[in-house]
Amino acid sequence: MILNHLLAITVAFFLDRLIGDPPNWPHPVKGFGKLISFLEKRWNNGQNRKQKGALMTLIVLFVVISITGLTVTIAYMLHPLVGIFYEAVLIATTIAQKSLRNAALDVYEPLQDGHMTEAREKLSWIVGRDTANLDESEVVRGTVETVAENTSDGITAPLFWALIGGSVGAMAYRAINTCDSMVGYRNEKYGKFGYASAKLDDIVNWIPARLTGMCMLLVKRPEHATTRHAWHILFRDAKQHPSPNSGWGEAATAAILGVQLGGVNTYGGIVSNRARMGDPIIKLSALHIPKAIMLMNRASILFLLILWIGGLLIDATISWR
Q: Under 8 Å CB-to-CB from 200, ≥6 apart: which residues?
C-alpha cells in the first residue's frame, strides 16, 4: 500500500508540474467550496457558532473521504495500475506547483518591464492585503511571501498526507485547508464559526511546514550569510509569525536570500504589523521572485525524495514484522 502511495505521489508531482490545473476542467476544490458555502450560509448565525462550525468541518471531511475512498476502491478493483493512476490524478489536484509558479511570474514580468500598476493588480489576485499603493520592494515582498508560505500549503503538505493516506489523505488535507481559507478568519463574522477549521489546519500543517523550511535550507546555500546563521534565523524568526506554520517557509526563504520579509500590511485599510522574518542584508528586488520560485522547486523535489526514503523504511518495517 505504501509503495502504491509513493508511485501515485510521484506521478502526481510531475503531472502537476507539467500540466497544472487546466482552465475549465472540473476541480474538487470547487466542489469543496460549494459545500462549505452552502453550510456556512445556513449555520453561521445565532447561538453555538463554534459547535456548528466544527460540525460543518466534520461533514465536509466525511463527504470528501467517503466519495474519494469509494471511487479509489472501484479504480483498484478494475486494475492496480488504474487505481494508482486515478490516485495520482486526485493527488495532482491537491497540489499547486505550476499555478503558484505562474502566479508569481505574472507579477514578476510586468515588474521587469516597469509596469507597476499591472504588477500590483496581479499581486492582488494572490494576496489579501491592499496593493494599490505598494512600491516595487513591497510588491516583491508580497510575492516572495506567497511563494514561501504556499510551498508547504500548496505542495509539500498534501504530498505528506498522500504518503500517510494516499489520495484520501491528500483530499482530506485539501478539504481542511479549503475550510480554513474560506472561514478560518479571526474576525467577528468567522471568529467562532471558523475556529475548528483554523485549528485543524494548524494541526495538519505542523509537520510539513517545519520539514519544508528545513528542506529549503538544505537545497541552497545562503547568499549573504553563513549556513549556521541561516539556521539560526529559521528557528529564531519562524515562531514569531502569527501563524504557527507559515513562518517556517518565510523565515527560511528570507535567510537564504538575505532579505527581510514581514512588516506592515494593510487589509481593507486596517494596518497590520507582522513580525519580521530574516535580516535586511540587501533590499528586495524583482530578481528575488524567480529565486523564490527556484527555492520552491528544489525544496519540493527534496521533500519528495524524503517521502520516498521514509515510505520505503516504513514499508520495510511493516514487511519485516
A: 57, 176, 179, 180
Q: Are 223 and 80 in contact (CB under 8 A)?
A: no
CA–CA distances in Å: residue 163 to residues 87, 146, 246, 298: 11, 25, 22, 19
CB atoms within 10 A of CB 235: 13
What pLDDT does 102 receive? 96
- Whether the pLDDT of residue 88 is over 90: the answer is yes
Q: What is the pTM of this model?
A: 0.95
Q: What is the DSSP string of 278-297?
A: S--SS---TTHHHHHHHHHH
H/E run at residue 265: strand 264-267
What ranges do the domains of the chain cover? 2-320
Question: Residue 321: pLDDT band by 50, 70, 90 thresholds?
Answer: low
Q: Which residues pair with 264 in a beta bridge?
A: 273
* Residue carrying C-alpha cell 466519495: 67
